[in-house]
Give the backbone structure.
Amino acid sequence: MRRVTSPTEPGRLLLLDSASMYFRAFFGMPEYAAPDGTNVNAVRGMLDYVSRLVDQYRPTDLVCCWDDDWRPQWRVDLIPSYKAHRVVEEVTSAPDVEEVPDPLELQVPILREVLEAFGIAVIGAPGYEADDVIGTLATGAGQPVDIVTGDRDLFQLVDDAAEVRVLYIGKGVGRHEKVDNGWVREKYAIDAHQYADFATLRGDASDGLPGVPGVGEKTAATLLQRHGDMAGIIAAALDPGSGMGPGPRAKIKAAADYLEVAPTVVAVARDIDLDRSGLALPSTPADPDRLLALAEQWGLESPATRLLGVLGG
């Protein structure tokens, strides 16, 4: 059964950055052994996170956005260092193998099975990261959107006019921050639509993005305040009469090759061809018998019961 809203009742779409959340659950929750001894702490934690967020925000639609390709080749072709430090095995005909703790890797397919038994939409796209799925579903959603993530790169999607915000779980799901344009401006002295250019300039070691040498957050923010966007910054660097200082001018010009490709890598895709049907949050499980069997097999009775109660409420 799906939730039903009246034609005049606004919906709300909750988009979950699944990997960001189950990694957090794995490292933040105590180990919990299933009947066969398998650690299922990430699965239990993820189900509890979903229960908490659904109970608090009461979305009409919910999607667990998935990394079908955590390191897309088209991004690597542009910046070879992109996430290179996380690769444990390069694969020619499939996504490279990411460094994931073995006890977590075993849990990911269990989590996906459980979510599907609940009837919660799980969406990925070949050749794209979960961020790109989120960007596409958040763009033109026609309803308020909450994006749950610990990834600051998704701040670029914040749009007050379209009612798109980020529920940032950097300090934990229970202590998440509601990120709107005012939050971004107070934190970084830029607007959310400038965040992708800000991240490009500053770089991000966690993603293998070098940034512009010598340009940190303060300089990146100042450049964007004065010149608006990356195109304006580059144009000012090339224009002797622009008034850009000699230090920033030299750094931007020296990084020309990087700045030609990095914005494409950092920008979240917003136009993937995705099926937007079946996003409604279920009020009852899609496959009750399968859900019961999985809960018993993996010792998930308590978190599954909690989530069922929230969905039914």
The beta strands are 13-17, 61-65, 87-89, 97-98, 121-123, 145-149, 164-168, 177-179. DSSP finds 14 helices and eight strands in the chain.
